[in-house]
Amino acid sequence: MNARLDEHQIMSGKQEKAKYIFYFLALGGLICALPRRQDNESNKLFNGFCRTTRRTVEFGRTYVVKPKGRHQATIVWLHGLGDNGSSWSQLLEKLALPNIKWICPSAPTRPVAILGGFPRTAWFDVGELSEDSPDDFEGLDASAAHIANLLSTEPADIKLGIGGFSMGAATALYSATCFAQGKYGNGITYPVNLRAIVGLSGWLPGSRTLRNKIEGSHEAARRAASLPILLCHGICDDVVAHKFGENSAQYLSLAGFRYLTFKSYDGLGHYTVPKEMDEVCNWLHGRLGLEGSR
Ligand SMILES: *[C@@H]1O[C@H](CO)[C@@H](O)[C@H](O)[C@H]1NC(C)=O
Predict the structure, then answer these.
(1) Is 39 a catalytic residue?
(2) From CA 179, how far away is CA 190, in angstroms rounded?
(3) Which fold has domain 25-287?
(4) Rounded CA gap, 5 and 227, in Å?
(5) Which of 75, 97, 118, 241 could be a cystine partner for 161, CB 3.0 to 4.6 Å?
(6) Worst-scoring range by mean pLDDT, 21-30, 78-87, 108-117, 151-160?
């Protein structure tokens, strides 16, 4: 097994090309390397645990990048599976967005079903990446609440947003759906006003039931229609398929998230490139009405 266990690597080349290789690259190897029987057993054990025990999750360390200029917006940025807030904070710090404060939390370490129950930092449990896989709404709600909590202490005149990569993008999109509905999946009131959502190489959890939930409420439809969302996805993504990102964009748009931009990148796999981050910068600058010209 030559699986790599660190989620990503930063390769700095002549063009300062930062290439984030996702931990999922290791998954194929890891899961295949586990005997089938053991794989099933660990899943059973974990599912049983979920049903009978209320999970207590402990989130990891949070890294904050202070704005270099006047503080106008705060964005919580969420890492991918197996990663932590530190690596993204280093990348975000270098972006030409001096008016944004970045908050980069780290996910709880938990057994992840797609890894055969192997513990890794993850925003929620994930079994398989398909539209038919059951979603871990308990885990999603806990993470969405942790993120909203981080934003809730920002001053009232600061615009708030959530972004993320891969599973972090999925959590950001889930938060967007909670914001629109005014409540988490568990019915508790969603406490903050979101102004921008960015999802890179991600997907939308709970996509199939979203439309009914939004269409059922006038307020939810209004909030969905007014929340700007930027989705970016590499055409060559071999971890979260491009089609999957595209479908998520379609589900969101059908559910009434009309203020949505979906960008595809030729030749891009499950990582980010400066061209994509430039798009994120320009988009945030425009949507959040940040000062200064670009
Ligand atoms: C955070 O993740 C990086 C790899 O992405 C790793 O090198 C580093 O040790 C991790 N830091 C912590 C505190 O876990």
Answers:
(1) no
(2) 6
(3) Rossmann fold (3.40.50)
(4) 36
(5) 75
(6) 21-30
